[in-house]
Automatic annotation (TrEMBL), chain B:
This is Phenylacetate-CoA oxygenase subunit PaaI. It comes from the Bacteria. SUPFAM superfamilies: Ferritin-like. The lineage of its organism: Bacteria, Bacillati, Actinomycetota, Actinomycetes, Kitasatosporales. PANTHER family: 1,2-PHENYLACETYL-COA EPOXIDASE, SUBUNIT C, PHENYLACETIC ACID DEGRADATION PROTEIN PAA.
Length: 371, 244
């Protein structure tokens, strides 16, 4: 995204939001096209038609083709995607909070610019993802409602606090790093709009990861106090980052079906292992240690072994008992409630601009601002 | 730091005035992160804040070390307008501040870009950015003014409350060779047109306070500014000599 050019060379920012829906009317496969075109005959052909649609879908997924918004898809596939994309979108916007906590205290103007650009990117990710979810027939308003009422979740990692400046670096290195490990395979996800959103998001996340690493490196090589600050942050963020990959495979409720649908491509434990293997040499180059005495290279497996994860803490935080659950959702709700009059004004203005308001369009005044 | 003990030259004065305006307003806009009324505004406000921070960095670096200037000067050494240090208030208050300031900045940079002074290259580049800031502020002034009764009342309150900080923009600044009469006339015409199109009323009170007129440029600020700096400078000052 062009925001980085602002930091490096002070170029004007990219104001364009980009569209994920440009291909929204396409259909993935000839088979799906054919299934959609087939006019339903008598009542007796309904079952046959359903089977045909299912077969076209299965075939497309098996052939690694993209499912597009207009294609027929099983209800459960749609529901599962909405759940996953919404949770991802919510994570982007809640994830702004722990970092925004340091924007006003950033210790140099360069770091401040990088952090502001990152917060802006995360808001942008939220926008792409809500748009991707909208292609499945849910509105951003509905999804935000579910977030605010606790019916949909966001990544539990953001329920941990950013206590020092070094936490900003640790989040970039570990949390954005874990997000990338999770999301790179999603660029090949079977649902087109989600996969395309992920390609764009991943590019920016890897930028965040490098900046976080670089920020930690500066601290690690800085004064004694800075080095200690960096180590303390890594100590606190390491285990929660490993938990970002979700529960162990044998306890993961959504994994298996998501793999069959090619929404997901690797299991939680596979991705976690990949992440550990990436981080160990990076921690070494940072001159920092990872807080796990059991961490060591296993020649036979070709991977690093690591110690047991405290899943009790994971479930506890997930259930709402983390250090910042209340704080995060309260701030989100407050921003939304305090912004209601702004969104109403924008909608009312748009209605006036579109011509004299008719009785049946008055309801749009309560919708989301289009600005 | 020597900025308070030796009188700065006119080039420094001009760069500090414009640089501090951009730095301080960028900081205030940065406070919106995570609190904006709609996701699109999270992006837009951060975008504007980033543009301003970029301008501040170029300006401050042209007359010293950007971090020393931002983090180690005392409140009385800052040269920004009092307008930009005013707390965000509600979204309407922020938009009113944006309207007043971005209109000023667009006109000022327009003049500087057209001249061939030292600030011309920066101004030529920044004028494109601030034109977007001005458009953003105008669009929202229209939406809020001609939106609902509540938004109308709120934006009018914001415009009224900040009006007395606008006179300072037209005070002379050492080192800034501009046509202040033309600046004032164009600013008034532009702001008036937007306010009236938005079905709002141009504030009628004085454009400066009893003894604070033009004071920001001389280092006299309002109470909230000290707290803003305390927050902004705390970490940097806690680790003297450290690099980040
Ligand atoms: Fe993101
Ligand atoms: Fe990120």
């Amino acid at each position: 995204m062009a925001t980085r050019r602002t930091i490096e060379s002070n170029e004007p920012n990219d104001r364009s939001g980009g569209s994920l829906r440009s291909r929204g009317t396409e259909m993935a496969t000839a088979a799906a096209q054919k299934a959609a075109e087939t006019e339903p005959g008598g009542a007796g052909s309904t079952a046959a038609r359903a089977a045909e649609q299912q077969a076209a879908f299965d075939e497309a997924v098996a052939a690694d083709e993209r499912i597009e918004p207009r294609d027929w898809m099983p209800d459960a596939y749609r529901t599962s995607l909405i759940r996953q994309i919404a949770q991802h979108a919510h994570s982007e916007i809640i994830g702004m909070q722990p970092e925004a906590n340091w924007i006003t205290r950033a210790p140099s103007l360069r770091r401040k610019a990088i952090l502001m650009a990152k917060a802006q990117d995360e808001a942008g990710h939220g926008l792409y993802l809500y748009s991707a979810a909208e292609t499945l027939g849910v509105s951003r308003d509905e999804l935000l409602d579910k977030l605010h009422s606790g019916r949909q979740k966001y990544s539990s990692i953001f329920n941990y606090p950013t206590l020092t400046w070094a936490d900003v670096g640790a989040i970039g290195w570990l949390v954005d790093g874990a997000a990338i490990t999770n999301q790179v395979p999603l660029c090949r996800c079977s649902y087109g709009p989600y996969a395309r959103a992920m390609i764009r998001v991943c590019k920016e996340e890897s930028f965040h990861q490098r900046q976080g690493y670089e920020s930690l490196l500066a601290l690690s090589r800085g004064t004694q106090a800075q080095h200690e600050m960096a180590q303390d942050a890594v100590n606190r963020w390491w285990w929660p980052s490993l938990m970002m990959f979700g529960p162990p495979d044998e306890e993961s409720s959504h994994s298996e079906q998501s793999m069959t649908w090619k929404i997901k491509r690797h299991s939680n434990d596979e991705l976690r292992q990949r992440f550990v293997d990436i981080c160990v040499p990076q921690a070494e180059s940072l001159g920092l240690t990872l807080p796990d005495p059991d961490l060591k290279w296993n020649e036979a497996r070709g991977h690093h072994d690591f110690g047991p994860i405290d899943w009790t803490e994971f479930w506890d935080v997930l259930k709402g008992n983390g250090p910042c659950n209340d704080q995060r959702i309260t701030q989100r709700r407050r921003a939304h409630e305090e912004g209601a009059w702004v969104r109403e004004a924008a909608a009312a203005y748009a209605t006036k601009q579109a011509g004299a308001p008719r009785a049946d369009t008055a309801a749009t005044a309560h919708g989301e601002a289009t600005a | 730091m020597t900025t308070t003990s030796t009188p700065p030259d006119s080039r420094t004065e001009a760069a500090l005035a414009l640089g501090d305006d951009a730095l301080v307003l960028s900081h205030r806009l940065g406070e919106w992160a995570g609190h904006a009324p709609v996701l699109e505004e999270e992006v837009a406000l951060a975008n504007i804040a980033l543009d301003l921070l970029g301008q501040a960095r170029v300006l401050l670096s042209s007359v010293g070390d950007e971090d020393e200037l931002a983090y180690l000067r005392e409140e009385r050494a800052f040269r920004n307008l009092q307008l930009v240090e005013q707390p965000n208030g509600d979204f309407a208050h922020t938009i009113a501040r944006q309207l007043y300031f971005s209109t000023y900045q667009t006109l000022l940079y327009g003049q500087l870009a057209a001249a061939d002074g030292e600030l011309a290259p920066l101004a030529a580049k920044a004028v494109k950015e601030v034109a977007y800031h001005q458009d953003h502020a105008e669009q929202w002034t229209l939406r809020l003014g001609d939106g609902t009764a509540e938004s109308h009342a709120r934006i009018q309150r914001g415009l009224d409350a900040l009006w007395r900080f606008t006179g300072e923009m037209f005070q002379p600044v050492v080192g800034l060779d501009i046509d202040r009469t033309a600046l004032r006339e164009s600013w008034t015409a532009s702001v008036t047109a937007v306010i009236e199109r938005a079905t709002l009323t141009v504030p009628s009170g004085p454009q400066s306070g009893a003894w604070t007129a033009g004071a920001g440029r001389q280092g006299l600020h309002t109470e909230p500014f000290g707290r803003m700096l305390a927050e902004m400078q705390h970490l940097h000052r806690s680790h003297p000599g450290a690099s980040w």
